[in-house]
Amino acid sequence: MVGKRFAAGEATLTDELYVARIREVVDSLTDAQHGLLNQSYLTDLVKLEPKAIDIRIANLDITALKVKDKAKVADIRSAYGALTAAQQAQVTQLSHLEAAEKAIAAIKDDERNRALADLAALLDHFIETDDVNGPSVKQLSNALKQVEHHLNA
């Protein structure tokens, strides 16, 4: 049934997860158990895997990605990496995966820079208002400004 949905272009993310789980089970078999498998089923699995990866990639909404999605994107990259070269050549959504990876990196960098700017602003406030005294705070503020400069370079 899953194979028919893939063939008809109607496979879902659940179907993809089913294919991934089958691969996990097949990979966990001993050589003796593996030899007992119907080879046509293995052939079908090999054919379905690139399509399944495409479905996972297509389900990534790049505009809504958050830092917490990093693991999901990394899992998809790992699954893609586990494919054979011939299977990888059949994946059509690779550029979308690469865009998602870049988006995650940009989000992470943006959040880090925002946090750094917030901290620097807070320290500047303390220094300007004399809420906190001592050279260590001024030194820390200068150090943070230097780090921010290097991050923006």
For the secondary structure, the number of strands is: 0
> What series of H and E elements makes up the topology?
HHHHHHHH
Beta content: under 5%
Quote the distance from N terminus to C terminus.
Answer: 54 Å
Q: Structural class from helices and strands? A: mainly alpha
User: Uncertain segments of ≥5 residues (pLDDT<50)?
Assistant: none
Number of helices: 8
Dominant shape:
elongated
- Major pleated sheet: none
| Mean pLDDT value | 82
Q: What is the alpha-carbon Rg in Å?
A: 24 Å
Q: Tell me the helix content.
A: over 70%
Structure summary:
By secondary structure, this protein is mostly helical. Helix content is 78%, strand content 0%.
Descriptive notes:
The mean pLDDT is 82. The chain is mainly alpha-helical and 153 residues long. Helix 5 (70-82) packs antiparallel against helix 7 and helix 7 packs antiparallel against helix 8. Helices cover 78% and strands 0% of the residues.
Provide the fold topology.
Layout: H1 2-7, H2 13-28, H3 31-36, H4 39-58, H5 70-82, H6 85-88, H7 94-129, H8 135-152
Which features characterize this protein?
153 residues, mainly alpha, 8 helices, 0% strand
